[in-house]
Amino acid sequence: MLSTLKSYALEGINGYLVEIEVYAQSGIPSFDIVGLAGSSIKESRDRVRAAIKNSSYEFLPKKITVNLAPADTKKEGSGFDLPIALGFLLSTQQVVTSYPLQEFIILGELSLDGSLKRLNGVMPLIISAMQAGYKKFIVPKANAKEAAYIKGVEIYAFDSLSDTVNFFLGVYAAQPVEPLEYVQSDNINKYAVDIAEIKGQAMAKRAMEIAVSGWHNILMSGSPGTGKTMLAKCVPTIMPKMTFAEAVEVTKIHSVAGILDPEEGIVSVRPFRSPHHTASLFSITGGGVKSRPGEVSLAHNGVLFLDEMPEYPRQTLETLRQPLEDGVITVTRVAMSVEYPAHFMLVASMNPCPCGYYGSKTRICNCSLKDIKRYMSKLSGPLLDRIDLFVTVDDIEYRELRGNRAEESSEQVGARVEKAREIQLKRFALEGIYTNSQMNSGLIRKYCKIDDKGESLLESAFQRQRLSPRATSRILKTARTVADLDGAQNISVNHLAEAIQFKTIEKKEIGYSL
Amino acid sequence: MKLTACHKALLMLKNTAGIGTVKTSRIADVVKNIADIYNDINSVKAAVVHAVGLKLFQQLKESKETINFDEIEKAVNELGVKIISICDQEYPFLLKQFDDKPLMLYCKGNTDLLRHPCFAVVGTRMPTSYGVRVTKEFASALCKRFVIVSGMASGVDSVAHRAALLNGGKTIAVLGSGIDVVYPPENLQLYNEIAQKGLIVTEYEPHTQPAQYNFPARNRIISGLSRGVLVTEAGLRSGTMSTINHALAQGREVYCVPGSIYNKASGGCNKIIKDCQSIAVTHVNDIFENIGLKPLEETVPSPMKLDVTEEKIIELLKRNGETHFEEILDHVDLSVPQLNSLLIMLSARGIINKGDNNYWSV
Asked: What pTM value is reported for the model?
């Protein structure tokens, strides 16, 4: 007898419908899975057999064929265990029900004892299926929290195969999972540092505040030990809270990557990713045989921190160009081409030269000019062009001299950031973006109007620093953020001046510029 | 141009291992006509052997066969280079005065500049913003009275050349490589500009690649050509120290711009001031007065419209010199963004400058 059930499989961070047909006939006993099943699905045969026996059903000696349609797409993942087992029980007529099983999307991995285990990527699967019009879902209980944040669907979460069967038989009356309300979390990274702990560094702090407010990319340069990493660690403490829409985007990616905390169910804190410079190219971009999102996507709506940026392989840095510009990364492999969102804020740090003391007032730099140029050339022009704020982190000596100005706490700075972000959310409510840094040229024309005085200042900067058109539009976006921080409706010449000054790279042409 | 017998004789002397500039002078003292070395070396055998010994004489004699004079002549003509040797009338008088003088100069550009009074402006290849600023200021003033001589290296040298060209002055670049080899390569544009508006000089044959030991040797020509040498910024172990030593050995006056005692980049300058080997100068008129020239008239800056806070900042910067952003912040009643944009606006008006590491100066 033939039975057909519906399930969903992942492609990138989206899902597609997979129909699971199970046909049991008399003949030499066998169990075959066809339809380009990956190795984790092939192995499900053994899990299903044990789970059925341990749930006190019979694994009848029949010739069983399982087909995963569409048959020409390669499938991966362990989420088909449950529908295959259910299909087996239906087709061998151990379970007979008039329940409309076709309405359900069934997801679940089986343990040998018949219980259901947690799956990766449940939230993106449900969202995709919901968009395709499906309303009822069966998921493992361990995924219930993650699924409960999606509204307008009926989610049934079960512990085991027998519970699921009993539900369909009407023996076990289960209620759909209670939807959960999204709560913006106050939790921050446990390694985070309060900004008040950094003394001095007014310029660097100001640059960081602007960067976080408008989600602009920032590059810090300074001698070793001046506090670049510490400043980066402050970023999580002043980041604005995530909206629900942003949180869902992040959760989808984290769920696919399998790093979602099942206790939380949703990512409510902006991610802060800091891959080491030995990280491989594919771990940064995503991809590989099983196509997993990389660090750039895991940092979506959060921060990607590259400490000692010139130490990263050139190739790795260059791959950041597409996501930095478009906010997505397209990973193409033999089997498929997948697009992962990657709208992150780049926070990078570097030394001014290999020894770290070029331009220092207290130490001699003993690098040759050639060394410095080689070091600087790791960061290509196109990459630097995509960075909005350059800031020098001051040498330690001055900080010892400075007066006792009170330092602002992360809370105070964060409140300003939050305010600037609210202005942006309101402005872009109908544009489908969240931050100033996401504006395209049309939106820049619309929202970044400058007066004649500003125009002439920009013109002179354009001439003097030989800015590219992209750099100019990035300056305008930063200026918009500066104005938002000021609570101003229009970008004044002062706002623009600050944006230009942070876009200027010092020592770019080490000495021989005139 | 055609290579004269004298040029060929000098090429033989240059290409004989063991005969350097000093022994050449010794030979030149005893041989009446240097061209004879090429024309008929046996006629001057007695004198040469007396000066440098028989072995070197033999080598000198053999060198005539090994040198490809035609090839050098061809290269010289193709590159549009003029040779000025110690036999020539045009050879700069000041350079002639010391033993270690270069035998031949390959010149590209306006050779008349060699007859003008010259002044060397040299310094580190990795200047701080202070060094760049000092060099610009002094070179643009000095080029009103002198031809600026420097080495076309990166850093201070390039800044000096550019400042002279920018202010309508003349400049001579002395290379440590062949006349057609641009080093460092990024100075190609500068090289072309100097060849067009100034003069490029080297003692090395065409196609010679730059070698480490060429540069200290070329430094003696920089100081030798000049009435004085100005060092704008140099660390203790800078190559500029070799120029200073040559200048002192040649009896040239060395002028130094002092730097902060905390700034290691000025360590070399401060040391030679401390050792009384140079004259410390803080204004270009100090140099002119020392030489006995009329000082330049100061241009009075036109009064600017400034508000109270701006006055206060400029007052502070004038008093402190280079001042850190946070120190300024301590002195004014402004927030970080306010002060930041104010400083930018002032620098856009050309009133103040931004240095490295968030330092500002008037």
From this structure: 0.75
Q: Give CA–CA dist A19/A5, Å, rounded.
A: 6
ipTM for the complex? 0.73
Domains A2-169 and A195-503 share a fold: no
**Pair A151, A182: CB distance under 8 Å:** no
Residue A406 forms contact with B (CB below 8 Å): no
Where in chain A are the domains? 2-169, 195-503
Distance from CA of B324 to the nearest CA of A (A): 8
Judge whether residue B202 has pLDDT over 90: yes
The confidence score (pLDDT) of residue A508 equals: 43
Alpha helices in B151-283 (DSSP H): 156-166, 188-197, 214-225, 240-249, 267-274
The band of B232, judged by pLDDT with boundaries at 50, 70 and 90, is: very high
Point out the least confidently predicted range of A12-16, B85-89, B320-324.
B320-324
- In A70-212 the beta strands, taken as DSSP E runs, fall at 104-106, 109-110, 116-117, 136-140, 154-158
CB of A358 within 8 Å of a chain B CB? The answer is yes
Residue B99 CB neighbour total at 10 angstroms: 11
CATH assignment, A195-503: 3.40.50.300
List the single residue in B132, B325, B338 with the smallest CB-CB distance to A511: B132
* Record: fold of A2-169: Ribosomal Protein S5; domain 2 (3.30.230)
In the block, tokens 């200021």 appear at B137
Contact assignment for B154 to A512 by CB distance below 8 Å: yes
Over chain A (514 residues), the average pLDDT of each successive run of 10 is 92 90 93 89 91 93 92 86 94 89 93 93 92 94 91 93 92 88 73 80 90 92 85 88 89 90 86 90 82 90 91 90 89 80 92 80 72 81 87 69 71 91 91 88 88 84 76 90 91 88 63 33
Q: Does the beta-carbon distance from B337 to A506 stay under 8 Å? A: no
Longest CA–CA span in chain B (Å) reads 87
Residues of B in contact with A363 (CB under 8 A): 264
Q: Do A203 and B324 touch (CB under 8 A)?
A: no
Domain B111-291, architecture per CATH: 3-Layer(aba) Sandwich (3.40)
Nearest by CB: B326 against A360, A402, A493: A402
**R_g (Cα) of chain A, nearest Å:** 28
For residues B144 and B116, give the distance between their C-alpha atoms in angstroms, rounded to a whole number: 12
Cβ pair B263:A361 closer than 8 A: yes
Report domain extents, chain B: 1-67, 111-291, 308-361
The residue length of chain B stands at 362
Residue written as tokens 């035609």?
B70
Distance, in angstroms, between A187 CA and closest chain B CA?
29
The confidence score (pLDDT) of residue B29 equals: 79
Give me the residue from B163, B166, B357 closest to A359, CB to CB: B357
Tokens at residue A482, please? Answer: 């500066």
| Closest residue in chain B to residue A509, using alpha carbons only | B155
Give the closest of B128, B343, B358 to A392, CB-based.
B358
Question: Is residue B40 predicted with pLDDT exceeding 60?
Answer: yes
- Is B202 part of the contact surface with chain A (CB cutoff 8 Å)? no
Q: What is the pLDDT of residue B98?
A: 81
CATH code for B308-361?
A: 1.10.10.10
- Report the residue count for chain A: 514
B57-73 core/surface letters (b: 16 or more CB in 10 A; e: else): bebbbebbeebeeeebb
Chain A residues whose CB is inside 8 A of the B342 CB are 494
Q: How far is B104 from chain A (nearest CA, A)?
A: 30
**Per the CB < 8 Å rule, is A511 touching B341?**
no
